[in-house]
Amino acid sequence: MDNPAQIIIENVSHHYRPAVGREVLALESVSLQVREREFLALVGPSGCGKSTLLYLIGGFLPIDTGKIMVDGKPAAGPGPDRGIVFQNFALFPWKTVRKNVLYGLERQALPRAEREARAQAFIDLVGLTGFEESYPSHLSGGMKQRAAIARTLAFDPRMLLMDEPFGALDAQTRSLMQSELLAIWEKTRKTVIFVTHDVHEAVYLAERVAVMTARPGRIKAIIDTSFDKDDPEVHRSKIFVDKVDEVWTLVRDEAVKALEKQRP
Amino acid sequence: MARVTDAMRRRFAWGAARLAPVVTLLAAWEIFARSGAVTPFMLPAPSAVTERICEDALGGDLFVNIGATLYRALMGFAIAAVGGVVLGAVMARNALARWFFDPIISVGFPMPKIAFLPVIILWLGLYDVSKITMVVLDAIFPVVTATVAGIASVEKELLWSARNMGAKDRELLWQILLPAALPQILTGLQVALPIALIVVVVTEMQMGGYGLGGAMMQASRFANSRGVFAGIVEIAIIGYALVAAMAWLRRRLLAWHQEGREG
Question: Which residues, listed in sequence order, are joined to residue A161 by a DSSP beta bridge?
């Protein structure tokens, strides 16, 4: 567990500039370290900037103040070392599942046969065998997210940035996808930063849960949730229920504060 | 021997049902024209108009005129389509181009471009070039606005995903933005196509010569009402065929899109 820190976030602040109106301080001096091969969940009340932090790590937004180091290099611009998975899947709708998965591979120096084999391997891994030639609009929500995860895993990023990936799925699919993600994580052992507003999901999936404050977002607390989760009844175990309660109390306090701030 | 299945019968019934309003209109026209309430000069019967169209077809004039009209309409449409997508893409990607062209598009779109016809005639003469220019001038606007709106509405997550997977900035336009905006661009083209036909017929009426519009004006000058009505029917059929062809092309190109889904 004592892996070195792979992602170092130091005093990062971020202003969000809406098309109209004043600029908003979304993040205020956030500092956080993520270890290699760790599964870290980021929770907080809505609007706390947890997705913004993820986009900053991904290099999709410019960093105003502070710095983010990934593998010892500043996170300037997106790169295939950090694979992102979005809540709305962001599959290319005009490409079949296979072509979607191939998109990232085509930008790597691999022979064609190997690209095809890799794509097929990850389509199989997420359980989409037989749907290679389907367009995303013909897939269910859960299948779309499987395809998106396969597409991101296929170009072999060192870490996965997941932005509420199961937020658009129904409860059954969501719980199924959670166990499958854990299985995939155990197989591939990538560093994962997982943004969610679902405390249950965070405690179940992650080894550590970082709770953020209401806007402007800061890291309020980091809870260790690395207990044994192999038991199918883990959701009812005392340690699980206690951890959920602990995280939930922290998040709820912040949600209440956020509501109070909105009142005139 | 092919078996007549239920599905085939249903499709035939649907086709017949869709044709019924047109058949009813033609029948009403025929009955009214023969009733004696109007003279054949004011309103020739469809049968007489059909006869005239057949004569034109046998004489070859019909195909010369249709060819001229279609050539101008489709050539103008093609230039407007390519130019409109290029201009729209440049405007969507470049703030300076947007700053420059936005007011021009806003003023130019609602303006009746037919007002330029005298100038265009002075500059470019009476033949194909001036007519095609008029078509481009009218048909390019819906294509530009649809392209700008289509590219602007592409979700940022699609662009981010592509960049995440190593796409270069210059690859984004062809690989992501244009395919993602294709449904809206095709809608713009579907608006532009009938405009192209309308403008070509109007300019032909103004300038004379070959083409369906010119032939109609000539028939009108010679007080040939069957010839005028023949032109109206021909233009209606060509317009319908063009729109149907464009809808077919859309279904082909957007097989991946939600709307291409069955059921």
Answer: A84, A193
Q: Are A211 and A251 in contact (CB under 8 A)?
A: yes
| Ranges in chain A, pLDDT < 70 | 1-3, 263-264
Please tell me the pTM assigned to this model.
0.86
Domains present along chain B, CATH in parentheses = 47-262 (1.10.3720.10)
| Of A131, A148, A33, A137, nearest in space to A86 by CA | A148
The ipTM of this complex is 0.90
8 Å CB contact of A92 and B164: no
**B166-169 long-range CB contacts below 8 Å, 24 or more apart?**
B166/A79, B166/A80, B166/A104, B166/A107, B166/A108, B166/A155, B167/A107
User: What's the Rg (C-alpha) of chain B?
Assistant: 23
CA distances (Å), A258 to each of A46, A252, B52, in order? 9, 10, 78
Strand intervals (E) in chain A:
5-16, 24-35, 39-43, 65-70, 73-74, 82-85, 159-163, 191-195, 208-212, 219-224
Peptide bond into A216 cis (omega under 30): yes
Residues of B in contact with A58 (CB under 8 A): 160, 164
**Token pair listed for B38:** 């109007």
pLDDT, tens only, B180-198: 999 999 999 999 999 999 9
Residues in chain B, overall count = 263
Q: Is A18 exposed, middle or buried (0-12, 13-18, 19+ CB in 10 A)?
A: exposed
Nearest by CB to residue B256, choosing from A88, A103, A137, is A137
Residue with tokens 């019968």: B9
Chain B residues inside the 8 Å CB shell of A144: none
Amino acid type, B150: G
The DSSP output letter for A136 is G
